[in-house]
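HOLO CASE FILE
Compound: NAP
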Amino acid sequence: MKYRRLGVDGPEVSAIGLGCMGMSIAYGTPDEEESQRTLDRALETGITLLDTADAYGQGANEELVGRWLRRHAHERDRMVVATKFGLRHDAATGRVDAVDTSADYVPLACRASLRRLGTTHIDLYYVHRRDPGTPVEETVGAMSRLVEAGLVRHIGLSEVSPATLRTAHAVHPISAVQVEYSLFTRGVVEGELLATCRELGVAVVAYCPLGRGMLTGALSSRDELAPQDNRRRWPRFADENLPHNLALVRAVRDVAERIGCSPAQAALAWLLAEGDDIVPIPGTKRRRYLEENAAAVALSLTEADRELLRQAVPEEAVAGDRYPEQALKRLGH
Ligand SMILES: NC(=O)c1ccc[n+]([C@@H]2O[C@H](COP(=O)([O-])OP(=O)(O)OC[C@H]3O[C@@H](n4cnc5c(N)ncnc54)[C@H](OP(=O)(O)O)[C@@H]3O)[C@@H](O)[C@H]2O)c1
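Model generated. Tokens follow.
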């Protein structure tokens, strides 16, 4: 494993982290036993960054990570546990129905996450989505008091605008911005957001680096998705868009074959090569995928490989938005 620092004063983390969301929600049937083994394998592989959020399964994913942390209490200091707050659920439907980043809510959310994770501190605490009605100074001010109290070590933001990042960073150093970034979703990061991160010394944690599994080439039809799989509602997996997007993935596969790796590894190695300040967090609940993904750190792509991968997926060629309409409205504030 290789390691990278998140931001100027942030934690050192494995160059590839582990996204834990899919262990509880989103991608098919959860499998607690295999998920726990996948977390074990992450530790053995040298992966130190675990990514979860209070919103994933309304706390269920933090509880799953918490069960693992309790089994590995002696390894706690090696791990960088990242979680997020801000998305609230309607109790009856289980759907996200509000964004709350008020100063009153911040300590309540943090204490609830600490309880579920069974830990005394959160290494990296992110604002999951920003409520545009709450000044970010108020939110980050409340988070900085959690740092002073020793409950949180570092602060991050997810899916924010460059202006929000700048304002937040003036209140308290921001270690990382978490944002969707992959061969399939480049425009959000590349440009002003990445330039602002670099100017301020803030790392980019790239979520959905495999395009929610699309870029791995493992999926060939929507029929393969379980009925409860969220991707059935995701525009890029819709019947009218999927065949087109899968043709782009075949082009990625061709370049990966030339390089001598899998499409997932090519997608991750491409992100890693974009800068030492970028840390992808591919999600999986299976040891076999985790091992495949972790091995991407050993690949060094040539300039020509990187350009071929970009050309394989011209960004404007991807069909469908990256989120359903309602969720899109919560991005970039
Ligand atoms: N900040 C935010 O708003 C936000 C939003 C979404 C996600 N996230 C975080 O980012 C993490 C990563 O994103 P993600 O999990 O949504 O998407 P992703 O990493 O792009 O893709 C995950 C999907 O790819 C599959 N997969 C992983 N490695 C594979 C391989 N080598 N071969 C074949 N299939 C493979 C997984 O399958 P299995 O499930 O079967 O293992 C899962 O279905 C999440 O876990 C979460 O922690 C953050």
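CASE NOTES: Residues 242-259 form the longest helix (18 residues). The radius of gyration is 19 Å.
CLOSED: yes
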